[in-house]
Design brief:
There is one protein chain. The chain has 14 helices and 7 strands. The strands form 2 sheets. Strands 1-2-5-4-3 form a 5-stranded mixed beta sheet. The chain is of the alpha+beta class and about 375 residues long.
Length: about 375
């Protein structure tokens, strides 16, 4: 059996819901494909979340040992990430650069066991004014820094403390079309300065975005990767857990205006049906829930499960050749094929994304990048 087998996916989703909500697990008595379930969980970056539940069943000893090791590594990485966040935030504060923690460890706290959420990198927002100063502060603090030319272009630069990667953001996101970017930047500026939600790492207070903007931002990031490269269920779970935990702090009128102005209400509702129909969120906890999008949610989930987190199951790298032109044409063909399949569900959003991707790719091709 493969990862697209319905029985494997059903068991995987049942284990995930049990881990997040404590609901009973539904597993056929003759089920034996535990290795495929674990592989699917790894491809979706949620093995940490459901690992303990997985080990409570009669799985092979070899798999049990691997899962136990993975969970131990996840817990240790989680502790290291938190330590680096405290160190970096304290250094920036001392250097006069206010920062806001985006996604990741700022969302992990909403899980039943935060230390089992699989870590990625650290995203810190410092804004336009603190951007150049933050580079010098982190360099002095001992971070390994990306080339300083990153300060002149793009929305963020990269730094690292040991094996922990940090993205330091000038902007939380940049939308390719001016009409939407103006709306987004106004919302981002407000959400990064007003109503910030503090949390503590060790003895260091770290700010996270205002709740209303945060739930929109996490969804926007998720949807962007869905359109471009693929996204895993970890991102869906992050979005779901913050909606569950902070539902009483969300300004629904403000959120509705932002979704409508950004032309994202329909995708929001369709993706919400994934949370409600497949991941166990209560319909009452999802803003603007509309069950008429249930059909789309099944197609969304199918794509997510087949592609893996950030498209890791698509095996794009193995198809690369030495020819620069071939690789560019292959990439274009891939984006075009992806867009055609997405146009049926989200025609406006998919078309806009393809136009931006094509224009960006053409520019890079002309410049030999």
């Amino acid at each position: 059996m493969g990862l697209n087998d319905r029985h494997i996916q059903d068991v995987f989703l049942s284990l995930l819901k049990a881990s997040l909500w404590g609901v009973p697990v539904r597993i056929p008595s003759d089920f034996t494909d535990w290795k495929d379930v674990a592989r699917l969980a790894r491809s979706q970056s949620v093995l940490g979340l459901l690992g303990e539940e997985l080990m409570s069943h009669d799985i092979p000893d070899e798999l049990r040992a691997k899962v136990r090791t993975f969970l131990m590594q996840t817990v240790m990485t989680h502790a290291k990430m938190n330590s680096v966040i405290a160190e970096v935030t304290a250094a920036l504060d001392k250097g006069g650069v206010p920062s806001v923690l985006l996604k990741g460890q700022g969302v992990a706290r909403f899980y039943p066991k935060p230390e089992l959420r699989q870590c990625g990198d650290i995203d810190l927002y410092v804004g336009v004014e603190g951007y150049a100063r933050s580079y010098e502060v982190l360099k002095q603090a001992g971070a390994a820094m990306q080339d300083a030319k990153a300060l002149k272009v793009g929305k963020h630069y990269n730094a690292s403390f040991g094996h922990i990667e940090i993205e330091v953001h000038r902007y939380t996101e940049v939308y390719p079309f001016r009409k939407y970017d103006r709306v987004y930047q106004r919302a981002s500026d407000a959400g990064m300065t007003e109503g910030l939600v503090p949390m503590t790492f060790g003895s260091v207070s770290v700010n996270t975005p205002a709740d209303t903007f945060n739930v929109f931002f996490i969804f926007s990031h998720l949807f962007h990767h869905y359109l471009t490269s693929g996204v895993g269920l970890r991102q869906f779970c992050d979005w779901m857990m913050i909606l569950h935990a902070r539902r009483d702090h969300i300004d629904l009128a403000e959120l509705e205006r932002l979704l409508l102005d950004m032309d994202l209400m329909e995708p929001w509702q369709a993706f919400g049906c994934v949370l409600v129909g497949h991941l166990g969120l209560s319909p009452e906890e999802f803003p603007f829930y509309d069950s008429s999008h249930t059909g789309k949610s099944a197609a969304i989930l199918s794509r997510v499960l087949s592609e893996g987190n950030f498209g890791q199951e698509r095996d794009v790298v193995s198809r690369r050749r030495k020819s620069y032109v071939f690789n560019k044409l292959s990439s274009l063909a891939g984006h075009l094929s992806r867009t055609c399949s997405l146009l049926r569900m989200f025609p406006r959003q998919a078309f806009r994304q393809f136009c931006h991707t094509f224009a960006t790719g053409l520019s890079r091709f002309r410049n030999g990048l």
